[in-house]
Amino acid sequence: MIRFDNLHKAFGTNEVLRGFSLDVHEGETMVVIGYSGSGKSVAIKHIVGLLEPDAGSVHVDGLDVATLTRQELYALRAKIGYVFQFAALFDSVTIADNVAMGLRKQGLLTEPEIAERVHEALNLVDLEDDVGTKLPAELSGGMRKRVGIARAIALRPKYLLYDEPTTGLDPVTSAIIDALMLRMQKQLGVTGIVITHDMRSAYTVGTRIAMLYEGRVQQVGTVDEIKHSTDPLVRQFVEGRAELEPVGGAGR
Ligand SMILES: Nc1ncnc2c1ncn2[C@@H]1O[C@H](COP(=O)(O)OP(=O)(O)OP(=O)(O)O)[C@@H](O)[C@H]1O
Ligand SMILES: [Mg+2]
Fold this sequence. Notes:
Helix 3 packs across helix 4. The chain has 2 domains: 2-79 and 158-251, Rossmann fold; 95-156. The chain is α/β, with parallel strands linked by helices. It has a 6-stranded mixed beta sheet with strand order 6-7-8-3-9-10. Strands 2-1-4-5 form a 4-stranded antiparallel beta sheet, with no helix packed on it. Helices cover 37% and strands 24% of the residues. The chain has helices spanning 40-45, 70-77, 95-106, 111-124, 141-153, 171-188, 199-205, 223-227, 232-241; strands at residues 2-11, 14-24, 29-33, 55-60, 63-64, 80-83, 159-163, 191-195, 208-213, 216-222. The structure holds adenosine-5'-triphosphate (ATP) and magnesium ion. Adenosine-5'-triphosphate (ATP) binds next to strand 2 and helix 1. Adenosine-5'-triphosphate (ATP) binds at residues 11, 14, 16, 34, 36-42, 85.
């Protein structure tokens, strides 16, 4: 389980998280929605210790991430696959080497075992083995997103964090990525957090949905509860006006 408890995080005078609390249960996919700049990426970076809280805490499987030693943090990160907002592949090495990178860093498997894992991971995201010999520049945006997911699942993580996995993709490619995320949850039993602006994707993959607003969770609920929310801020967001100015403004 991942537990955000009263998390506060500011950058200078920019108070991004102001008491963010959220529980993500085993086996569920928690979708996090919210306006651009609301702190969604900042929140999940605390899970892997890329950021440290100013106050409050993030616990993963009962461990307070900010208190871990370097070694304990590495052990924790081995359980967590992170699909970055911008696919973040290494341009100069092949797709197979990109997918293998985390496994090589861990140093637990032989090269033939790594090759088998790469094959398995590419298969799970429906990419043919010959894609492995290509360079990132030779792939479409949707394929690169899939490689990003393959790289995360190659480590067989317990948790998968997806930051905007469908942003910038056409509807057909988005639907493929949604199906993949569902497969990770249902077939591999992965617990997921998905950050997205895309409500269709949120409704497809979410077990529950949480809306982040002004540094806190405005509402968290099942897909149906969010779809039929009576909270005006949530309604405005989910009705597809996500990119407009939020009602209430600064003085809420
Ligand atoms: N390392 C950092 N240093 C300073 N400010 C930061 C840093 N990381 C994030 N911020 C600021 O924190 C705020 C929240 O950023 P964040 O990336 O979490 O937004 P987001 O909700 O993920 O937005 P988007 O939907 O556009 O990805 C922004 O104002 C951003 O400029
Ligand atoms: Mg973001």
